[in-house]
Amino acid sequence: MNTIVNDLELRLASRIRAEREARGWSLADLAERSGVSKAMISKVEREESSPTAALLGRLSGAFGITLSTLLARAEGGASRIARASEQAMWQDPETGLRRTAVSPVGSDPIELVRCELPPGQSIAYPASSYTFIHQQIWVLKGILHVTEGTEIHELQNGDCLQLGSPTTCKFENRQRTACTYLVIVARR
Asked: Which site from 31, 32, 91, 150 is most exposed, i.e. has the minimal number of CB atoms within 10 Å?
C-alpha cells in the first residue's frame, strides 16, 4: 500500500471527495464518467494511494474542471498575486513530473502551469481532459514530443503549440535531460 504523505496530496484526496459529493455522485458515478475504477477512486479518497497525473486528468475532466483548478481548490486561498515561493507544486508519483501552478489561485479564465518532465518519461491524458478548455504548450527548455490523436509534434526551445480539437494527448520527453514547458489554459 502506498500511503500519501504530502500535505497537498492529503488535501487533494479530500477535494476529490468534496467535488464528487458536491455533484451528488457516488463512486460508481465518478468511475463511469472518468474511466477510473471505483476501487482506485476509493483508495485515493481514503489517502491510501497517491494519484498520478493521468488519473487526476481523468477525474478533473469528469468534474468539468482543469487539473490546475482541482489542485488550486485543494490548496485553498485566493490572491491576485502568486509569489514564486508560494506557488503550489505537485509531483506525479509515477513519472516524477513536477507541475507548478504559476497563476494566482482562482485565476479563471486563464491559467499558467509550469511543467518539468524528467528524461525518458511520458504522460497521456484522455480527450475528456480537454473538452472544456483550450491549451497552448510553450517549451522553455529541452525537446517535447506531443502526440495529439495520431499527429506527433516535436517542440523545441521556444516552440509553442496550440492544441486542436479535444483528443487523447501524450507528452513525452525522449531526451537525457528534463524538459520544461509552460501550459497556458483558457476555458472554452
From this structure: 150
Which one, of 63, 101, 121, 120, lies nearest residue 185 by Cα? Answer: 101
Do 166 and 143 belong together in one domain?
yes
* Strand ranges inside the chain, DSSP E: 89-91, 98-101, 110-117, 122-125, 133-141, 144-148, 151-155, 160-162, 169-172, 179-187
Across the range 53-66, mean pLDDT stands at: 91
Q: What is the pLDDT of residues 88-98, one digit of tens each?
A: 898 999 999 99
Domain CATH code at residue 62? 1.10.260.40
2 within a domain of the structure (yes/no) = no
* Residue 43 within a domain: yes
- Examine the pLDDT at 79 and tell me if it is beyond 80: no
